[in-house]
Design brief:
By secondary structure, this protein is of the alpha/beta class. The chain has helices at 18-28, 57-60, 76-86, 98-103, 108-114, 139-145, 148-156, 167-190, 200-212, 228-231, 252-261, 265-270, 277-282, 284-295, 300-309, 320-324, 327-332, 373-379, 384-392, and strands at 9-12, 32-37, 66-71, 91-94, 119-124, 194-199, 238-239, 244-247, 314-316, 335-340, 344-349, 396-397. Helices cover 42% and strands 14% of the residues. It starts with 8 loop residues before the first strand and ends with a strand.
Length: 398
């Protein structure tokens, strides 16, 4: 066993992205994560591209370091098996609505009876204290309710659109992982387990409103909502004579160095719109427009050399193919080619944190559906006769 969470056992009932992404973080940190799947498996197993049925690329990238058991929780013996496993587990993680867990006889009070110290973590759309409690939620819906498409429309002047990635699930998934590890730390000191609710809507709003309340932060309001710099129409990679470049000319030192580098040092001294952080924010459209015109005059390579010499933050704009060819990532071994037992050769993204002790490791490949059912039941004390009975009832599958 390896990693700082070595010895922690997690029963992971989640599917899709948010829950599995959170539990993969726990698994990467050393927790023994048992992926409890229904007979049909996690729905993301079917999200292609894939080489083999039930092993879609989304599933493979969010379920390493876990073991899979198939339990039919609607069958009494399947539910009993889960409760038996929970008695010696530290965390139960789920992402169906609490009402559905209660109907299955798997609510917090049910779990407390078999494991008083368990951390019972629920991840779903909305706080259970408001009128949206029972509403279904998906990444696109929560992005919309948190104003992300509206903000993109404000920033670009174009039709609102979602972020081109499953953003909310992953951001709130990290919040979920953080909450679970904090609850485990609290239990370590106090001996007390607890229930945790991590709602997507409120979790993502903590990110969006922290940036975009702006003048609405104050009562009465001192101005409009929206952080001006983030919403500036020209805040985007700059077009060069042969491509694009990402540049952040940000503080006074950067601006002095930038004007010196392009031979226009008098502008910083004479043009009040560039004279301070506050003035640049006040005239942000002019500032970005000015930079947009300047960067078109040279190639990306020329700009990178000039900006590096001037100590101004700059980088090439990458495509996914560029990322895969990046020399820094090659040197650190961040993206590796591995051999999956059923899927063959594939790329794997490394654990991004680095540790001097309790080093996390990749211990398991993303498992096939029910790959570890029999192994896990034996670990939890079931005899071969008990296992055959559960299999014959279809309460479990392998």
């Amino acid at each position: 066993m390896s990693g700082p969470l070595s010895g922690i056992r997690v029963l992971d009932l989640t599917s899709v992205i948010m829950g599995p992404y959170a539990s993969q973080q726990l698994a990467d940190l050393g927790a023994d994560v048992i992926k409890v799947e229904p007979p049909g498996g996690d729905v993301m197993r079917q999200a292609g591209p894939m080489r083999n049925p039930g092993m879609g690329h989304f599933y493979l990238t969010t379920n390493r370091n876990k073991r899979s058991i198939v339990l039919d929780l609607k069958k009494p013996s399947g539910r009993d098996a889960l409760l038996h496993m929970a008695a010696s587990s530290d965390v139960l993680l789920y992402n169906i609505r609490p009402q559905a867990m209660a109907r299955l006889g798997l609510g917090y009070e049910d779990l407390k009876k078999v494991s008083p110290k368990i951390v019972y973590a629920g991840a779903y759309g909305f706080s259970q204290r408001g009128p949206y409690a029972a509403k279904p939620a998906y990444d696109d819906l929560i992005q919309g309710m948190c104003g992300i498409p509206w903000l993109t429309g404000q920033a670009t002047g174009e039709t609102p659109r979602y972020a081109p990635m499953v953003l909310v699930d992953r951001v709130v998934g990290l919040q979920l992982c953080n909450a679970i590890t904090a609850a485990l730390f609290y239990r370590e000191r106090s001996g007390i387990g607890q229930r945790i609710d991590v709602p997507m809507f409120e979790g993502m709003l903590s990110i969006v409103l922290g940036e975009h309340l702006a003048g609405h932060l104050y009562r009465p309001s001192t101005g409009p909502s929206g952080y001006q710099r983030s919403l500036a129409r020209d805040r985007r990679p700059y077009e060069t004579s042969d491509g694009h470049i990402c540049v952040l000319v940000y503080n006074d030192k950067h601006w002095c160095s930038f004007f010196d580098a392009i031979g226009k040092s008098e502008v910083f001294a004479q043009d009040v719109r560039f004279s301070s952080q506050g003035k640049r924010l006040e005239h942000i459209d002019h500032v970005y427009g000015f930079l947009g015109e300047i960067f078109r005059t040279r190639s990306t390579g020329e700009w990178l050399a000039l900006l590096e010499h001037a100590d101004i933050p700059a980088a090439r704009m990458y495509s996914i193919d560029d990322i895969l060819a990046d020399p820094h990532l090659a040197e650190t071994g961040y993206i590796q080619q591995v051999t999956h037992p059923s899927e063959g050769e594939m790329l794997d993204v490394s654990i991004p944190t680095e540790w001097s002790h309790s080093v996390p490791e990749k211990r398991h490949h993303a498992p096939k559906l029910g790959e570890n059912t029999v192994e896990l039941l034996r670990e939890f004390g079931y005899s071969d006769e008990d296992i055959r009975a559960l299999l014959s009832e279809a309460a479990v599958q392998q």
